[in-house]
Structures are given as C-alpha cells and as structure tokens.
Amino acid sequence: MITDCYDIKTEQVISLEDFYGKQKHILDLCLIVFSKEIHEHLLNTFECEEIGELTACNGKTPIYKMNYKGLDIAFYLTGIGSALASSMCYEVSWLTGATKFIMFGSCGSLSREETEGKYIVPTESYRGEGCSYYYAPPADYIKIKNSGKLAAIFDRLGVPYVTGRVWTTDSMIRETKGLIAERKAEGCIAVEMELAGVEAVCDFYNLELYDFLEAGDVLAQSGYEVEGLHGANHNLGKLYIALEAAGFI
To answer: According to the model, what pLDDT value does residue 175 have?
Structure first.
C-alpha cells in the first residue's frame, strides 16, 4: 500500500548528483510560480538571468534569477500536481542552493464565507495525493510548519488572510460531494493540488516552505462555481505579496 512507502531504513539508489553533478550554491531564496502570465510578467519587468535548467525527456524548465529591492531571488514555472511540483522544488534547490521557497497558487474554496476577499495561509494539508507518503510517515494531515511565520509577515504587511486546513488532491475531477463534506467536517477551507507533497519534500530535505493561496473557484455540495478561477490563477497581486514577504523570510 502507498502508506508503506516511507522507507528510511535502506539507502536510495538514485541521487540528483547522477543527473546534475555536484550541488550548486548560487542563492538562498526561490519563488515557485504556477501562472504562465505571472512568469512572463517577471521576465518582462525585471532584469533576469538564467542560472540553471531542469531537464526531462519532454523538455527543459529554465530557472531564472532576479533582484527585488536588493535581494537576489530565483524563480521558475513549476509543473502542476504534487509529484511534479515536489520533485521540481528539490531539483531547483540542488541546482541553485536555495533553501527557502515561497509558493503561491490558486485553490478551490470550500467555504466562501471564510475565504472571500482574503488570502489563505494553510496550517495543515490533507494528504490526498501520493508523493508525500514517500517523504513523511503515514498520517491523514501534514503540518505546514511555517504557517505561523508567514501569518506574522502578512500581519506586518497588512495583507488580509485567513488560516486553516486545506486538502491536497491528485484528481480535481474526483472531488465528490461526499469527500467535500468529509474535508469540510475536518475543518478544511480550500482544496489544491501541490501543498502536501511539497511540504513533505521540504521537511525531508530541511528546506523551508512558505505557502499561501488565493481562492478562485468554489466547490460546494450544491454545485461548482468557476467564474473566479482565471483571476486567482494569474493575479499579479499575489506575486508582489510574495516579493514583499521575501524580504522578511
């Protein structure tokens, strides 16, 4: 079973050194970007330098460096889903030396009343995906260890937010009425597709993850509302919140 996949008793047989050589140490901070529009905005607005690339048989993902208010920050366009986002995060850390990652994406709200007009700072994530079970002992939820630090930064910046549990899923079209009801009963206020895996990988490799979300679509037992999804995906506001927060991490 997948819950048996956390093996720290025997040695792994593959290392990133096999693919990329020795680990590099270029900078310490990196943005995990989901939106192609936000990614293009960074490239068009700031002076950017390519400092590495992730390689795979289906293409390459460049890693860029920019400077914001005197701070060197890497960024890259991540894949969607827990397995891809998690592996790319660790590969970027290997190729750049980054140990601190700010991840900011969109999510589906499970509680319009709680999330409307606010960003979401997750405190725990339900492990409804597969990747986290290779990097953390089996449990229903994984704690987002820097949620309190990020909430304090948001207070300092005057950013409206709500904290709470979220649900990481591997399959957005299998969010059934029954599963929505179960997660809401456990206190989840949103659903997304990466956080549990990325947090597990960061914890395993002693990396620091700071994650916040913007709710777009709404999932309710009465139906699905998709109108706000595009705006939440590509809103430049959360990019500049991430950049400002970087100065306090």
So the answer is: 87
Three-state secondary structure readout of the chain? CHHHCCCCCCCCCCCCHHHHCCCCCCCCEEEEECCHHHHHHHHHHCCCEEEEEEEECCEEEEEEEEEECCEEEEEEECCCCHHHHHHHHHHHHHHHCCCEEEEEEEEEECCHHHHCCCEEEEEEEEEECCHHHHCCCCCCEEECCCHHHHHHHHHHHCCCEEEEEEEEECCHHHCCHHHHHHHHHCCEEEEECCHHHHHHHHHHCCCEEEEEEEEEEEEECCEEECCCHHHHHHCHHHHHHHHHHHCCC
At 219 the pLDDT is 58
pTM score > 0.90 for this model? yes
- CATH of span 22-246: 3.40.50.1580
Q: Check if the beta carbon of residue 189 is closer than 8 Å to that of residue 120.
A: yes
Sign of torsion, CA 144 148 149 151?
Answer: positive
With b meaning 16 or more CB within 10 Å and e meaning fewer, what string describes 108-127?
Answer: bbbbeeebeeebbbbbbbbb
Distances (CA, A) of 84 to 9, 38, 88, 241: 25, 19, 6, 24
pLDDT (0 to 100) of residue 216: 81
The pLDDT tens digits of the residues spanning 202-216 come to 999 999 999 999 998
Q: What would the two tokens of residue 102 be? A: 């700010």
Give the model's pLDDT for residue 227.
65
**CA 3/CA 17 separation, integer angstroms:** 28
